[in-house]
User: What shape does this take?
Amino acid sequence: MKLPRMMALAGWIALCGVAAAQEEPAGSQEAGKIRDQLASMKITIDFKDAKIEEVIAYFQEFSGLNFHLDAGVARSGEEPARVTLKVRDVTLKTALKLVLNPRDLVCVYREGVLLVAPKSKIASLTVTRVYDVRDLLFKLEDFPGPLLELDPKKSGILTSCLAVDEPTSVIREDFLLDLIKTSTGDRSWDDSANTNLDLTKTGLLVVSQSKAIHEELRRLLDLLRQYK
Assistant: This one.
């Protein structure tokens, strides 16, 4: 596969997401619609010393989406700090981050419900899988070309012959890892200490992530193989 073609594909994936690249299962399509709603729906809020459950209930009423506050948040020994926040005309996704991030809470999609839970609880649900990506780490071959030299026996006369270099190794590892991080998992790669992405010298990709992100990664690798 030509390197420029791979670069163009990477840019397209980064802009459109893996979901747009090929047909997805119904559950994944639904999750994509929810993400689009969170990113496009604008909201104005003015909370003053509000309980977190009141804030989540307001988000649900405003958006019509199914939110659920994990029981561990409400029943924890120490009540999360109350919410005081005033913003105007921001996306619902931004409003959620402003409310949840300072309290170490996250919002994840689970079977039709947006679950608000402690970040540590969600991170603990990661699983480790190994992917063989040796077929995606290729070498770029230099094709034969003329090698021009002066003929020592004939002053000023150029001679030519075909010169073929050995295939030149293209360092694909960093490119592949960056593409995975920008195309899957949103910010979970950096926000959780339990996630991991490592490429061994033998071309094996070792990944610790949630099952949902593993599914995104599988689709991305399948897509890259289609364009080899």
